[in-house]
Every structure is written in C-alpha cells, then in structure tokens.
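Researcher: Before we compare anything, I want clean individual predictions. No alignment, no superposition, just each chain on its own. First chain goes here; please echo the sequence and then give the structure tokens.
Model: Echoing the first chain and its structure:
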Amino acid sequence: MLIEGCPYDFGFLINSYSNASEVCLEEFYRKVPCNKFPEFSDLDDTIMCYKNPKMLETVIAGGHDAKRNEGQIKFAALGILKRTDHPDLWQVYNVMKIIAHPGYQPPSKYHDIALLATGAKIRFNREVIPACLHRGNHLPSVATATGWGAMGHRKPLAEILQVVDINRFSDSDCRQAYPVHRHLKNGYDRITQVCYGDEELISDTCEGDSGGPLQVRSEEGRRNKCLYTIIGVTSYGRACGYVGSSGMYTRVAYYVPWIESITGPLL
C-alpha cells in the first residue's frame, strides 16, 4: 500500500516509522487510523491505532511533576531501559505544556495527576507503544509498577528501569497506613486513591518512582488496542524498603473524564 509515495507496510512500521517524515506520518494517521498487521503477532497482536492524534502527544504523570522544587520538566525520554543506552535508542520530546489537575494543591496529596503535552507526535515502535486508561471501579489484586527511583531506603537511583509486581491493600489497611495528617486532611480517599505493596516481601515503589505508571496487561478484549492498561500513577508513600509497606497511587479511572476533556476520546 502506497500513500503519497510512503510505503506503509510492516517493514515501514518496524524499520522506517521512527525516521519517517512528518508528511508521511500525517498521511498515515489520516488514512490508516487503525490498521492491523499480522506480522505483529510476536508483539501480542499489537495494533497501531491513531483514532485521536492527541493520543500521540500526551504523557500521564504525577501532579507533583508539574510543581517541582527542582524546576519544571522540559523533556520526556521514551524507549530506553538503561540510563546509559545509546542515544540512538532514546526518543526525546520537548514538554511544551504541563497540565496539572485543577484540584492538585501541594503539599496536599489529593488529585496527584498531570498531563505532559509533547512538542511532536510520539513515534511508536517495538520499544514505545500506547497504553489504555483504566475505566470502571474494579481494580486488580496484582499490578505492575515501573520506575527509575531509589533501589531501597537511602540507596542510589536505579541504572536500569525497575519492574515490580505488587498487591492491592484493602481500604481498611490503606486508611490505617495513611490516616488524617497535614498532607491528607481527610485521610485516605478510596475514590481517588489506592494502595499497593506487599505484606510479606520488600516490594514497593520508592523515592524517584513517583509519577510513573501502575499498570496491568490489558484484558484480551482490549489487547487489540493496547498491551497494557494504566490503573494508577505513583503518588507517594512512607519509607520504602521495608516488609509490609505500601505506596499510594492515584486512581486513573476517576480522572478519565478530566483527561478526555483535554485530549478528546482516548483508548
């Protein structure tokens, strides 16, 4: 299939997509809004769907990322597993706008979520793929957190992207772990927050992981759109690196209407 001289086939998506001209990409988004390529079977039937161009320019982060003491976020780097990965593997985008949820008022921990708008469309490939947003009230008992934060209490930041499976804590355990205090004037809020960790192992997010995703493999019926679904955004926690500790995560499902009021309908 040729569109204005651009070869849109499997080889294009795997080998040429990252370096394709903006003209070719715009034509691809416009004329091939959702096209399945059987050759992606090794990627669990990933489908390249572009029904909403805003999806290609939006990164979800924590509200605290929008109002940091260290200064404003200027760049987003995608597609890497190690900080020392070759520069050719990095996809670096300018962050043109940071939109924190209007209810986020630091140092309060409520509504800790933000959107980062990039200066160019994000180019998907084997290392960079879109994620769906969780919808509904049901939350899985086990989810996966990823991040570049500290390897433990008072330990250095990770050199390689870390992945950990953590368990959902009950609302009563969350209320006990996160009672009323100056940063949580109403205590744990089960509608907008959720706790994950491990009661028997040292499995937790740590300092520097905040703003990262809490995710699960997408249900089979949605896997034709995305491999993973984001259920939470790492918000904060108590001291990490201890057995039985849990972290607090912003529940994404509650914020989908706000997100889509800015981006339009997403996956």
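Researcher: Okay. Second chain, same rules.
Model: Second chain and its structure:
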Amino acid sequence: MSLQYTLLLLFLAFFIHQSLANPHHHHVNFTATLFFGDSTLDTGNNEFIDSAFRSSHFPYGLDFPDRAATGRFSDGLLVPDLLTSALNIKPLSPPWLDPGLSDEDIRTGVNFASAGAGLDDLTSAISNTVPLSRQLAMFGEYAKRLEAAAGGEEEGRRVLENALVMFGAGGNDVIFNYYDLPSRRRKEFTTMSGYQDFLLGKLEDAVKIVYSHGCRRFILTGLPPIGCLPVQMTAATFSDPSARECIDEQMADTHGYNTKLQNLLPKLQQTLPGGKFAYLDITNTVLDMFNDPANGFEETKRGCCGTGLSRWGRFATILLHCARTFLASHSLMPSTLQRECTRW
C-alpha cells in the first residue's frame, strides 16, 4: 500500500471520528455510503444515459484494474471508491443506474452523482446529465428498494440512519452558468454572491430531503480552486497560452462560496435534530499541491489527457509519460495520485 493511500485512510478515520461520530460512542460503524454530485464523485452513472459527458474510453481507467475505463473521469479510483473502501464497507462505490446492482450493493450504498451536473438543474441542461433534482428522486427510489433488500422497514431505516452521505457539486454551476456561458444565469443573478446564495439554497434543500428519509451523517464539500483549474486558465489565456496563471477574481469567488458553505453548517445542525454535518475543504489542499514544488508533480497547470488546450472527454488523448507527474488527469479533474494525496 502506498504512503499516500495510507495517509488518506488515516485522515478519513480521524475526520469521520471527530466530525461525524456520536459523542456518546467511542466509534461509529457506517452501514453504507451515498454520493450526490458531479464528475468528482460519479462512478459511472453517465454510462447509462444519453450524454456526451462520458468516459468509458481511452485514456480513462489507465490505473484501474485491467486498465479498464469504467465511466469514472479519472485514470483510476475516485473519492467515493477510496472512502467506501477506507470504511471497510466494500471496495467500490457502484452507480445507481447500473442495472446489475445486487441486494448487497443496495444495503451498502450506491452512487447517484453525474458528471457535468451541479446544484443548479440548468447546469445539466447543456450536457444532458442527471440534475440534482433527479438524483434526489433516484435516492427516493433507492430508499424504497432498500427496505426490501434489507428485509424490512426497520432495518432499512437503520441502514440510512448510519449511512455516510456526501454532496460534492457547485463547480460546474459557476463555470458553465456564470463564467464561461454568462447569459445563462447573469440576467437573473447580477452578482456572483447572489448566485452563490441560490446554489447554497439548493444544497440546503437537498440535504433536508435526504435527512427526511432518515440519513443523519453528511459531508458537504466546498468548491475546488476554480480559478486555478486548467480549463479556466486556458479560457482566460487563450490568446497567450504561455501566460497560464490562476484567475484572482474566480479564486476570490471560490473562497467566498466556501465561507458561506461553512456558515451554513451551524444552521443545519440547529434545524435538523440529530444530524451531523462536516465541511470538507478541497481548495486549500489542492492549492498546496499547485504551489509546492516538493509535491511530486512536474506539471500543475495543464491536464494530462489531451493534445490541445481542451483536455477532457472524447477530445482527450493521452500523454503516456504523465500519469504520475501531472496533477490533473484532464482539464477539470485531478488524477488518482492527487486524490490519494489530498485530504478528501
């Protein structure tokens, strides 16, 4: 087992114990993991819908067993897989839309996330992905199936009460609806702060819906460093690719959103009795890896996959030498090694 993976397991154990465990118990045993969000969490749902946002092709999956592309937007495992495995629940987080799900898959949790989705349903309209509202509807279907798979209403309720729920979305919303395609939301929200409040309202509503089904332990992830993502640096410096630097305004917006999200947690704690809520910082961890030359990566400003400036999806090819030296596997997503190094 690599040092990075060992550190990830140690962090997850500490994070979950400190943030989500019941203070009256010495430890907590999670029964299942459930995931809602975008490509950072999607383990293959988009392979079962008609969308251009798919990754079941080369170069994705190079570090996966048998070098197989599985629908994960990565060279290997995603955070849901690493987290589910670290909790000793099962090795992988299966996508809900997989028709081959077993009762055991249902009892131990599934994944509802969809690459290209966001907290704002409008985000999915451009990519024909599964919007958050539909992900929540799928969760309702899952809860009904869980009752049968678990052997009754009481056992199904126990599984949900002790499940770990993660929400990870928001980046696609600000990129597609505000920065890169501003006509989509700027007419309605004249400031980024106003759009952030709208997104966080959607997240709060989603948490309440999942809570109403009996779930009590939640991880809410902040935005990644939007202004430092390869795709945004490319868009900002298209006429001069050599001038690729993080975009200060977008980074300020990222920090503003994350601060608001952290401020939302006490409200959720107060209004949803028995709930446990933890904020997971992505931005500062990724920025540390961008800025620290000792992080083991040789390239932090370009995606590994691709021959041009657009390095993702079916437009991606592979630079075979870079899988372990590039921070991002493509213009939007970090590589497996970065996922194992970070405190996600």
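Researcher: What stands out in the second chain?
Model: Strands lie at 33-37, 164-168, 217-221, 276-280, 299-303, 326-328. Additionally, The chain has one domain: 27-228+247-288.
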